[in-house]
Design goal:
The structure is a single chain. The two termini are 16 Å apart. 30% of the residues lie in helices and 21% in strands. It is α/β, with parallel strands linked by helices and 230 residues long. A six-stranded parallel β-sheet has the order 5-4-1-9-10-11, with helices on both faces. The chain has a three-stranded antiparallel β-sheet with strand order 7-6-8, with helices on one face. The chain contains eight helices and eleven strands.
Length: 230
Amino acid sequence: MKKLVVLTGAGMSAESGIPTFRGIDGLWENHRVEDVASPNGWKKDRELVMRFYNERRKKLLECEPNKGHYGLVELEKYFDVQIVTQNIDDLHERAGSKNILHLHGELRKSRSSVDENLVYDIDGWELKIGEKCEKGSQLRPHIVWFGESVPLFGDAIDICKKADVMVIIGTSMVVYPAASLINYAPAECPVYVINPASFEGPSAKVIHIKKGAVEGVPELIDILTKSINN
């Protein structure tokens, strides 16, 4: 079974009602995103950071996977599907996808402030000041913040190197380091992009489906299953 590697970004979940990370003005309640999503922001105002992620978590629980998410599950009938997502929501999991790597962390998990290997599920939507890990340290959102390294990036590279087919959904692939993952796909690997916006990647090897995930993934399924049957 061929390996299908799927890279997903904010556009994948936007059609489920998940707001993109930044508002139109780049602010959240008059705060810069860096104030609520960086180590410095955490040191400066933990309550603000907690409230930001609690509200995002509460919103996530009101949303459901869309046809794009379910379409990727259907592709597991035909391919060994591995998803590498920049999204911190759990919509891929809730749709039923089996193999998911979260590059930037997971919204519904917390982790120790002193030991990044201590990770815990969050029951419901709220993480509170005073909730501590087994080492006595305050729990923080299990998110890769601005200015932090991306610990699973090496694993993502290894996955991309083994791709027989690569699919990029809902991201323009301009934010690094995630944007560089396309460069690790084998030279002969076809790349399908599902995104209504323009794509800045290596155009010579890209098939661009200029639609959102809800419409674009079913079209992709049709293309890929026909190629298998021919």
